Amino acid sequence: MLDIQYLRNDLDAAAQRLASRNYAFDKASFAELEAQRKEVQTRTQDLQAKRNNTSKQIGIAKSKGEDTSAILAEVATLGDELKAAEEQLAVIQSQMQAFLQNIPNLPHESVPVGKSEADNIEVRKWGTPRSFDFEIKDHTDVGAPLGLDFDTGAKLSGARFTFMRGQIAKLHRALAQFMLDTQTEEHSYIECYTPYMVNAETLRGTGQLPKFEEDLFSLDHNESKLYLIPTSEVTLTNIVRDEIVPLESLPIKLTAHTPCFRSEAGSYGKDTKGMIRQHQFDKVEMVQIVHPEKSYAALEEMVGHAEAILQKLRLPYRVVSLCTGDMGFGAAKTYDLEVWLPAQNTYREISSVSNCEAFQARRMQARFRNEAGKPELLHTLNGSGLAVGRTLVAVLENYQNADGSVTIPEILRPYMKGLEQLKAS
RNA sequence: GGAGAGGUGGCAGAGUGGUUGAAUGUACCUGACUCGAAAUCAGGCAUACACGCAAGUGUAUCGAGGGUUCGAAUCCCUCCCUCUCCGCCA
Fold this sequence. Notes:
By secondary structure, the chain is α+β, with helices and mostly antiparallel strands. It has two domains: 26-101, Serine-tRNA synthetase, tRNA binding domain (Helix Hairpins, Orthogonal Bundle), CATH 1.10.287.40; 117-422, BirA Bifunctional Protein, domain 2. It has helices at residues 4-9, 11-19, 27-63, 69-74, 78-101, 139-143, 150-157, 167-185, 200-206, 233-237, 295-312, 359-364, 388-398; strands at 121-126, 148-149, 163-164, 190-192, 197-198, 218-221, 224-228, 244-245, 252-261, 280-290, 317-321, 333-341, 346-355, 367-369, 375-377, 379-387, 406-407, 421-422. Strands 1-11-12-13-16-10-9-4 form an eight-stranded mixed β-sheet. Strands 5-7-6 form a three-stranded antiparallel β-sheet. Strands 8-14-15 form a three-stranded mixed β-sheet, with no helix packed on it. Strand 14 (367-369) and strand 15 form a beta hairpin. The radius of gyration is 27 Å and the shape is elongated. The mean pLDDT is 92. The structure holds one RNA strand.
């Protein structure tokens, strides 16, 4: 959510910055709503003040044993008028709230301006794609003999679900363990275990609701509705919702390995083959909750924490700075890490690291007590470190051998009881 | 699932319709005393929002929402959460 004061004071600048990310800010509606709000709120508060004042006088008069019928007659009509004003104000405020909740974050000035993915800027590349002296297979063909089974996934649940058995299931687990160990032991994140189902309030906090309900899976349980988390950014970030944390506790660095559930509405026909785009996938997430002045330093640091995983796995990748048109709803700046997939002969997203500045914090009312002792909004950042399923894809494709086996990256071998290769049994 | 108890400021804890945003204690901040500290004394100490150039004024908030009333922390209804006991259960 944006700062409404900023919108009031600098409407044109805000609209212009939002236009760069393909968001058409409706200035006329906002101005109209704001004018109504001002009039009705002022009137409501005046009426409330009058009521409070009168009631107080009745109290005083009664305690003195005086007659109050004159004052009572005077306020007889006040009630209806006040009630009408309050109701009108509530309607306007919820309209304003809905309006604000649907505005995306302002892009940071360093973000390249662009319309789509094609305008993203490559920041750096790491590693050299391996050259193969045999006909390479994609991960579905490499994985099938090793226990990667989409047919069974489809039988149990439908399209976009995977079933893994044997060594490949174990490799998947090894990847997650390795990532979690690296983020906790080398980058000092605190390991967390979080709920996989959350309420609507939590999703509003990080910005998935109200705008992106169709991307989520939900469950009806008795009277209450819960949603499956689309990422543990949701649970890790919301721990500070409605909190004022002490300055000394910053930065808060959290990580968790959780499944993520996404309906992938609107991506029909995209990546239908294989496990690139699934309804359920595992991810190791990093979240930092920081002092506003430190958030851009933290962003760079977190990109490094995600890169460390790919480097240790010796997987070639590139770092991309997303342009204004390609960034997610809550992000002020985002870097994507794209891993080399030889079968697709291209780099594919495997991690996304974003600084949301105060966008989520304002929705969550997540604050810290600043140097002056005053509450101030925090900045929140999140990033994948990494998406486990896609990392498995990258390992299968990059480490495949002519005989159909897959070499296990050295860093993972301790997690595989020293096993060096995956082979069909 | 059944029975009961409870949710008030950072914490503890008063408050069952009227000058209550809320006693008191504690924590914290400032000042006095002191060489300094402790103790003691005095004062301060919630958040959000609106109007205003500002000083300031006002509004809202006692788990959440609704109701009764001129007036609700206090009465009524619904919901949420926590705790205790019983049952079931990984």
